[in-house]
Amino acid sequence: MIQTETVTVPEHVHGYPDVAFGGYVAGLLAGPCEATEIRVDFRAKVPLETPMSLRPTRSGGYTLTDANGALLAESTPAVLTIDPPPAPSWVEAKAVTDAAMVSRRVTDCYGCGAACAPGRGLRLLTWDTPDHDLVIAAWTPDPGLADESGQLPPEVVWSALDCPGGWTAMRKQGMSFGGVTAALTATQLLPLYPGSPYISYAWPISHQGRKHTVGIALATSSGDLCAVAEALWIEPKP
User: How far apart are CA 231 and CA 238, in angstroms?
Assistant: First the structure.
């Protein structure tokens, strides 16, 4: 029998004001799937502090709907075909993140906001580097992000694969501020743990009109891949 679960995104888990953070929503839809490679498509804005229905589908994915049954997002098994470039070094990533603290506007975005209290956001400060075609960051997850198992749950891992894609589209492909994640396809290769150092990096793939496709990866400080994603970002209309 198909079971429906009620889920609510906490108020602090937002990107833009009053909108649930896309990567977190994607992780909620991907986490219970049996497939190892999942695509999540966003159909409408997902609200905060609002009960929604998470329901499995016959295709092996899940749908997220509001109280009126309107589709907000859905996950499906997918095939991820991108080939990530080698990770930059931890030293380089740390230097870029330190520079981001000075260069970037401070926000409370759940993914990349430096104004978030530890454990209330990822504080993953991705930034540009002129040395190669990547945006990168050094990231050590706070213990408050872990679940009961001591690992980072899917909604946190997928969140870490979200903002770097937007920054890549803006810094490397010229996307205007205000772009949104339309689709996120990802796989997790290794467990991630709080307190451990990770390298986040992302790169441009293609750009056509308002559509920006980018790749994102998370690696250990020694360069072993932990998670990989391909994201489609949509630029706001003029």
Answer: 22
